[in-house]
Amino acid sequence: MPATPAPPAAGPRRVRSTGLIAVVAAAALIGPLSGAASAESTADSVAALRKDIDALLDAPELKGAVSGVQVRSLDEDALLYERDAAKPLVPASNAKLLTSAAALDVLGPDHTFATKVAASEDPADGVVDGDLFLKGTGDPTMTAGAYDALAEKVAKSGVTKVTGDLKADDSWFDGKGLAADWDESDEPYHYAAQISALTVAANTDYDTGSVNAKAVPGASKGAAVKASLSPMADNLTVQNKGETGAKDSEASLGAARKSGTNTFTFSGSLPAGGAAFEELRTVHKPTNHATHLFAAALEEHGVEVGGTIARGVAPKGADTVAARESMPLEKLLVPFLKLSNNGHAEILVKSMGRKVEGEGSWDAGLPQISAALNRLGVKTDGMELTDGSGLAATDKVRADTVTALLEEAPGEPWFAAWQKSLPLAGDPDRMVGGTLSERMRGTAAEGKVHAKTGSLTGASALSGYATSADGEKLVFSILNNKYEGAPPRGTQDAIAVRLSEFSREAPKVTPRVSPQRKADEGYTGDLECTWAGTC
């Protein structure tokens, strides 16, 4: 069999031929041998691994697809497998690996987001003779409860009255809420929420710029459903057209927000005695929602605002009345990466731009990702990012760029926190297993594969760390594009399981092709489970 053509300079030459010469050549490629494994057994094991991964990628469900795949050994500093690893492909949420590592490099693991309340004059007598400013820096952990606690701090500072306006200062970021290349049809859904320096998270997963739309059936057929939004503020409007259907009828209720407004319309029906409807929906102009929510909290705590709610930039030297800081970035990584939170990624991009260029924008922030990766020793040839989350179908990344980052990251002081924040295969705790909670359970990969998932229409990915049967540390990246049908998560899982079973001493393994799992076992069409609200 002829030798496989040499790949780009990003990695050593692949060898698939047999015979003594090939065994010696493979041993040289693979690097120092682990334990008592001989050169011949190691070459046989690697050849078997390559054959199995080839079989998985050549399966009928990937006919016509393009797959960028690379597997490397951290312990042996060696290439174990690659296919089209130098081809730029759509990474989907694997882009978050690049964004998060860059943010740790640029902002630092101790970075926090501050939200301040400032007065235009010293309110020593309890009265602000002027305006009160709510100033944000993009904190994604500002829930309704956090705004209430901030209002309570204002009251406890002694402020009882503001003669002027409550002004929202979101100038830390630019005014662009949506990335240019996002699909407009995604805008109502929480994974495509508008980005703002002042925002509200709908829950403790910190889904920013969103509200929880909920409806429960009425007492009997024909009765209106009970519809609500949370957190509710007076900038939002509910139109309830939902009805209660017959007891055994099919649920058809939905909640929609008209573009450019904050009018939410509930329509359809819920069966009498049936389950509630509950989904996240984005708000228009998150700054307004945050400020109206804060205004209501100030009133609740006895602080009277004489003017209106408006926009404005806090003057230099304004007196800070109350402040709140978020958890440090290294802790925010857990909900960010475990649950693949798009809003967090974009907030970090704009925060990097603000720190380096003094401008909180995508234009200023995205170049910082490439710069940070280059500082880490990662080449970014062919990389094109138009957002930080991977929601844009125009993003392009090479598999060997991802594995290079995975190889370089262990040398960084933030690596332990970063790796721990990656989803852990098969762990049922959603803040441990994340988007891999329902994947690879009961296999050799369970509890041994830390990896980031990714899904868009026609693009699916899985990249991260695996530990072999011998305890060897491996890195891998699988970027699948242009497939037809369901996302090939079963194929990705089978590769990760095969890496977990890999042994340099024992080339024989379990059957090489694992079946695709069913949709009701954790797969939800083209969307990651967090996007569909199923994990």
Automatic annotation (TrEMBL):
The keyword Protease applies. GO terms for biological process: peptidoglycan metabolic process; proteolysis. InterPro entries: Beta-lactam/transpept-like, Peptidase_S13. Gene3D superfamilies: D-Ala-D-Ala carboxypeptidase C, peptidase S13, DD-peptidase/beta-lactamase superfamily. Keywords: Carboxypeptidase, Hydrolase, Protease. The keyword ATP-binding does not apply. It holds the Pfam family Peptidase_S13. Belongs to the peptidase S13 family. This is D-alanyl-D-alanine carboxypeptidase/D-alanyl-D-alanine-endopeptidase (Penicillin-binding protein 4).
